[in-house]
């Protein structure tokens, strides 16, 4: 839980979100048990008001630059303003199942 806690702390400090959800989705992938390499983050903050999706994602990537460089293999980012979040009834998209990397049936 070390990487997940770092992500939570950094995003909370950077964005003062009204809602923050950090989910370790590593168990859904072909990695050893207990891994912290695949994450889904949902950040809801008024700080995203007027910002395009790319700018929002870049700001999250910037905050998590060290973790992305050293710890995180995959990061799903969902960013919303409060009004967008309410329009979605407080639900972020469900992550698709992993197809096992090189085990894909093409």
Describe this structure in words.
- The chain has 106 residues and is of the alpha+beta class.
- The protein has one domain: 2-Layer Sandwich (GMP Synthetase, Chain A, domain 3), CATH 3.30.300.
- The chain contains 4 helices and 3 strands.
- The protein has a 3-stranded mixed sheet.
- Mean pLDDT is 86; it is low at 102-106.
- Belongs to the BolA/IbaG family.
- This is DNA-binding transcriptional regulator BolA.
- InterPro entries: BolA, BolA-like_sf, BolA/IbaG_stress_morph_reg.
Q: What attributes characterize this protein structure?
A:
GMP Synthetase, Chain A, domain 3, disordered C terminus, alpha+beta, 106 residues
* Beta-strand segment tally: 3
Radius of gyration: 14 Å
Give the name of the CATH superfamily.
Answer: BolA-like
Give me the side-by-side strand order of the main sheet: 1-2-3
Through-space gap between termini: 35 Å
CATH topology: GMP Synthetase, Chain A, domain 3
CATH class: Alpha Beta
Mean pLDDT: 86
Unreliable residue runs: 102-106
Shape: globular
Could you state the order of secondary-structure elements as H and E?
HEEHHEH
What is the strand content? 15-25%
Helix content: 25-40%
The number of distinct helices, counting runs of at least 4 residues, comes to 4
User: Can you tell me the number of structural domains?
Assistant: 1
Structural class: alpha+beta
Assembly classification = single chain
Largest sheet geometry: 3 strands, mixed
What is the CATH-assigned architecture?
2-Layer Sandwich
Region (Disordered): 87-106
Organism: Enterovibrio norvegicus
Protein name: DNA-binding transcriptional regulator BolA
Keywords: Stress response
């Amino acid at each position: 839980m070390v990487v997940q806690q770092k992500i939570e702390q950094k995003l909370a400090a950077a964005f003062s979100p009204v809602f923050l959800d950090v989910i370790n989705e590593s168990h859904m992938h072909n990695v050893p048990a207990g891994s912290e390499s695949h994450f889904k983050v949902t950040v809801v903050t008024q700080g995203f008001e007027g910002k395009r999706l790319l700018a929002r994602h870049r700001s999250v990537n910037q905050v998590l630059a060290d973790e992305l460089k050293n710890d995180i293999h995959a990061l799903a980012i969902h960013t919303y303003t409060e009004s967008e979040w309410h329009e979605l009834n407080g639900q972020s998209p469900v992550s698709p199942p992993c197809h096992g990397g090189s085990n894909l049936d093409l």
